[in-house]
Specification:
- The structure is a single chain.
- The protein is α+β, with helices and mostly antiparallel strands and 355 residues long.
- It folds into two domains: 187 residues, TIM Barrel, CATH 3.20.20; 151 residues, Sandwich (Immunoglobulin-like).
- It contains nine helices and 19 strands.
- The strands form five sheets. Strands 7, 9, 10, 12, 13, 14, 17 and 19 form an eight-stranded antiparallel sheet that branches. A four-stranded parallel sheet has the order 1-2-4-6. The protein has a three-stranded antiparallel sheet with strand order 8-11-18.
- Helix 1 runs parallel beside helix 2 and helix 2 packs parallel to helix 5.
- The protein is globular, with a radius of gyration of 22 Å.
């Protein structure tokens, strides 16, 4: 890979660097290496306004395998003036960036549009790759980046980029900093580890846009009245054909509502009897800043019995199978879910060619 957040360089210079890297690799491994390596770049986080990316792609598309870029849509993890009052205000700002509808909806959209336009304009076959993203830069924010709330921006970012023709997403980091997936002190998974595992397991490359009819259910009238207006009806649903099980459709459902359960009544006009059998992975936590995560009500913990040489760890991320059409898809407040429909379900047949 060429580059790591280089700034103030011209596209001709960057393109020359890519070609020089190609020569270095071929010198080291031999000219017959051929398809055994791919070149990625330029891995920039910011670039000059104008045609830089489009021209860079045009200059390198014959040798470049993937166009990589970085994004930290939440901004800085901490402020330079981190007094107690500023710290508290900035922490709330990050929470808003992750969970408030008016903030979440526009998060990073300008950069995404620009990178996709650069890719399309050059009419290239390049892979689009998120080369690095960890939400908040400068190592993440302790108490947010390593908590359940982090999964919301992370999952939405992966889903939005998949809708915008991206093939890969590299999370910053596996271990290290506060945005790590594995806690560097305890070596146990942080909540977003499970989000990554399930997304990789269930969401394939074929992306669909679906129309969802849903309603909100609150446990009390008081809670419904206390629900901020901007959250009312704020759920997001993404649909992919399943990764390892051909012919199955999987939904990712994010419920940003603090008080109301999201209940899906129809998907693309299909009633509940068309939405079974299905497997549900409902992910919840005691609160948004919890390190504890529940899958279908079961706390996910790591002990020796969870890991084997054959299956690795957490092979038991098992769903709840639903066969009764009277059981509608329900996602609790401040929770997310993956719902995978069986091949024989009507919706999988329609979208993914299930049998």
């Amino acid at each position: 890979e060429f580059g790591n957040e280089l700034y103030d360089f011209e596209n001709i210079t960057a393109a020359a660097g890519i070609r020089e890297l190609q020569h270095v690799v071929m010198d080291v491994f031999g000219a017959d290496t051929g398809q055994n390596f791919q070149l990625l770049g330029p891995d920039v986080a910011r670039w000059k306004e104008g045609p830089f990316m489009t021209e860079f792609v045009e200059l390198t598309k014959d040798v470049l395998y993937g166009l990589t870029w970085h994004s930290y849509p939440l901004g800085p993890s901490y402020l330079l003036d981190d007094s107690s009052s500023n710290h508290s205000a900035h922490q709330q700002h990050l929470v808003d960036q992750m969970m408030r509808p008016d903030k979440v909806e526009t998060l990073g959209q300008k950069q995404v549009r620009h990178i996709v336009q650069s890719h399309d304009t050059a009419i290239s076959k390049l892979k689009l790759i998120m080369g690095e993203s960890g939400g908040a830069y400068n190592s993440g924010h302790n108490g947010l980046s390593n908590r359940f709330i982090d999964s919301f921006w992370y999952l939405k970012s992966m889903a939005i980029l998949a809708q915008n023709h991206h093939d890969m997403f590299c999370r910053q980091t596996l271990i290290g900093g506060y945005y790590e997936l594995i806690d560097h002190e305890t070596f146990t998974p942080n909540p977003s580890y499970f989000a990554a595992r399930l997304f990789a397991k269930l969401m394939g490359r074929q992306v669909w846009h679906v129309q969802v009819n849903h309603e909100l259910e609150s446990s009390s009238r008081q809670q419904q009245q206390e629900e901020p207006k901007q959250y009312h009806g704020y759920q997001r649903v993404f649909a992919h054909c399943s990764k390892h099980h051909g012919g199955q459709l999987t939904l990712l459902i994010l419920n940003y509502s603090p008080n109301s359960t999201a209940v899906l009544n129809q998907i693309d006009g299909m009633l509940p009897n068309n939405l079974v059998p299905r497997d549900e992975y409902i992910m919840t936590a005691p609160n948004l800043t919890s390190k504890i995560v529940f899958l279908n009500g079961r706390e996910l913990t790591l002990d020796d019995s969870d890991c084997t040489a054959d299956t690795g760890c957490f092979a038991h991320l098992n769903p709840n199978t639903v066969v009764d059409s009277d059981n509608r898809i329900s996602v609790p407040p401040h929770a997310y879910a993956f719902v995978q429909f069986a091949k024989e379900s009507t919706i999988s047949k329609k979208k993914c060619g299930g049998s």
